[in-house]
Amino acid sequence: MGGETVELAPKVATPPSVAILLCTYQGQDYLAEQLASYEAQTHRRWVVHASDDGSTDDTLPLLEAWRAYRPAGQVSLWHGPRKGYAANFMSLAAHPDIHADYFAYSDQDDIWEPNKLERALKWLTTVPADVPALYCSRSTLVDASDRPIGVSVPISRPVSFANALAQNVAGGNTMVFNQAARALLAATQPFAPDIPHDWWTYMVVAGCGGEVSVDDAATIR
C-alpha cells in the first residue's frame, strides 16, 4: 500500500541431511575420538544412528552420555542383530525408521577428517537423485596414538561391476551413499552374512547401474 516496495529475503537452501550409521562393539577405548570427529565436521547437518552389537564394556554408557550431551534427536541408539559387524551395518542401512538424504557408514575406532562429509556431498549432490551413488575415499593409516604410518593403496583399475566381483575399492568407513543406493541395499535383505557390508554395497551399486566415485584424498584416519 502507498507504493512501498517490499523486499523479500533471499531463500537459503537447506543443507542435505546425513545419517551416520555407526556400529559398535567393545569400542570404549577409541569411541570418544570418533564422536569428537563428527562434531568437528564442516558439514553440520547430521544425525547419528548407533547400533551396538552387545558390548559389555563402557561403549553403551559412552554413547548414552553423548546422546544426553548432544541436541535432542541428534543421536539414536539401537540394538544390533548380534550376527557380526557386517550384519550390524546392514541392519542400519536397511532400517525403515532411519531417514536422511545421504547415509555414511562409520566404524567406532576411526577419526574423520573435518571435511569428510563436505567432500562426499560435493560429489554426491551432482548425481541425479534417482541414480544410485556411492562415494568412498582413501584412508590415512595411523597407530593407536594417531601417528600416521601410511596411506591406503590407491585403486589402479576403473570402478565397475566386473571390478566389484574381484575386489572392494575402499573401506566402508569412508563410504557415503544416497537414498537410491540405500533403497537397493534394503531390497537385498536378508543380507548374506559372509560378505563384508562395504564390498556388498559396492557390488550392489555398481551392478545396478549406479555411479561410484573413489576420492584419491584420505578422509579418515
Could you say which structural class the secondary elements and strand pairing correspond to? alpha/beta
Our measurement of the CA-to-CA distance between the termini, rounded to an integer number of angstroms, reads 60 Å
Compute the average pLDDT: 92
Number of helices: 7
- Radius of gyration over alpha carbons? 19 Å
Q: What oligomeric state best describes the polypeptide chains here? A: single chain
Q: In one word, what is the shape?
A: globular
Give short descriptive properties of this protein:
8 strands; 7 helices; alpha/beta; eight-stranded mixed β-sheet
Describe this structure in words.
It contains 7 helices and 8 strands; from the N terminus they run E-H-E-H-E-H-E-H-E-E-H-E-H-H-E. It is globular. Strands 1, 2, 3, 4, 5, 6, 7 and 8 form an 8-stranded mixed beta sheet that branches. The protein starts with 17 loop residues before the first strand and ends with a strand. By secondary structure, it is of the alpha/beta class. Helices cover 29% and strands 23% of the residues.
Concise synopsis of the structure shown:
This protein has 221 residues and is of the alpha/beta class. Helix content is 29%, strand content 23%. Strands 1, 2, 3, 4, 5, 6, 7 and 8 form an 8-stranded mixed beta sheet that branches.
Question: What does the secondary structure layout of this molecule look like, with pairings?
Answer:
Elements: E1 18-24, H1 31-39, E2 46-52, H2 59-69, E3 75-79, H3 85-93, E4 102-106, H4 116-124, E5 133-142, E6 148-151, H5 161-166, E7 176-178, H6 179-187, H7 197-207, E8 211-220
Parallel strand pairs: 1-2, 1-4, 2-3, 5-8
Antiparallel strand pairs: 4-7, 5-6, 5-7
